[in-house]
Write a structure and sequence with these properties.
elongated; DNA-binding; mainly alpha; homodimer
Chain lengths: 181, 181
Amino acid sequence: MQTITTLDFALLGLISQKPCSGYDLRKFFSSTPMTSYSDSPGTIYPALHRLERRGLIRGQTETGKGQRERRLFQLTLRGRTEFRRWQLRPITRADVVRRLDALMLRFAFMDESAGPVATRRFLQAFHKELASYIPTLREYLKNNRSAMPLSGRLALESGILGYETLFRWTKAALAAYHKEN
Amino acid sequence: MQTITTLDFALLGLISQKPCSGYDLRKFFSSTPMTSYSDSPGTIYPALHRLERRGLIRGQTETGKGQRERRLFQLTLRGRTEFRRWQLRPITRADVVRRLDALMLRFAFMDESAGPVATRRFLQAFHKELASYIPTLREYLKNNRSAMPLSGRLALESGILGYETLFRWTKAALAAYHKEN
DNA sequence: TAGTCCATGTAAGATGTTACATGATTCA
DNA sequence: TGAATCATGTAACATCTTACATGGACTA
C-alpha cells in the first residue's frame, strides 16, 4: 500500500465537493488561488488513474449532449474514509515545520467533510503546536543572530513572522467557529 | 543541460559560505530552521555527485588526523557564477505564487554572494510583485466569499495574511539595508 | 477556415523517498 | 564491549516536469 500524496488529497478534497473531470481539476488549479498544485495533464491524469486503481475514486464516462465525452470522478466510500482519516490525523511538529501546505489543505475541506467539532479541535491542536514551535525559532535567532549575515537573519525573521501570523490566524479562526455555533 | 533544483541551490549556497561535507550539510538541514530540505543521505549524496559531475562543485577527500575520511566540497568558478545568476534572475509572478521558498533562499545568501546593491534591488522587485499580486487574491475572495465554505474561506484568508506579512517584511528589510549603508 | 477552448492521454527523463548497508571513532 | 555519532553510499520505487500527440466543438 503506497502513500497518498498531498496532490492526491487535494484531488480527493475537490472531488468530494462535487464530481469532477480531470479537466475541471486542472482548471481549478490554474484559475483559483489553489495554485500550489500543478495543472499540467501529465500530473493530473496519471494521478487520477492511480487513485482509481487504488479504489479511492470511481470514474464514469459521460456521453455528451453535443460535447466531447469526459470522465466524471466521484469518491468511493473508501476514498471518503481515507480522506477523513487524513484530515483527523494528529498534528505533529513535523507537520508544522515541513508540511504547512498539507495542514492548510486538510483544514480547507474540513467544514464539509469533518464537521465543526473536528474543525475546532484541529485549530486548537494547530494553535498549540505553533505555540510550542515558535519559541524554538526565536531561541535559535537569539543564539545565532550575531553569527548570521544580515540577509540570512532577515530570511529567518521572515519565517518567524509567517509563523506568528499563522498563530494569530488560528485564534481568529477559532473565534469565527465559536461565533457560528 | 538539466535544470538545477532548489535543493541544489540550497547546497550551493551553504557550500559557498564555507567548504562542507555531505554530512555537514545533512546536519545543517536537520539542526537549523532551514528544515524545508531533506537531510536524508539518499537525497544529499546523489545531489552532491550530480553537482560535481556538472562541474559546479569540486570535492577533495580529507584524509583524517584520526577521523574517518570525508569529502569536503567547494564551489567551482562555474558554480559560483551559476549561483549568482540564479540569485539575480528577475522576480516573476510565478515565483511569488508558487516558489516563495526559492525566493527566500535566493535572498538568504545574497549578502555574501551578490552584495548590497543587488540585495536592495531584489527586495524592491519582491515588494512590487507582492503589491501587484495581493489585490488579485483580495478580489478573488470578495467575489467568491459567499460561495465558499467557512473553512475554505479561512484557509484563503490565511494565505492572504501570509502574503501581507511578507509585504510588510520587504519594507522592513529594505529599511534595514538603508540604515546599514 | 483558422483559432481557441474542451478534453484526455503517453513518453522520457530526472528527482525524491525510504530502506538498507557499511565501517570508523569515541565514550561510558 | 556496546551504543552513539561520524561519514558515505546504493537500490527500488514512485512521482513530477516537460513535451508531444490527438481530436471534437464552437465562434469570429
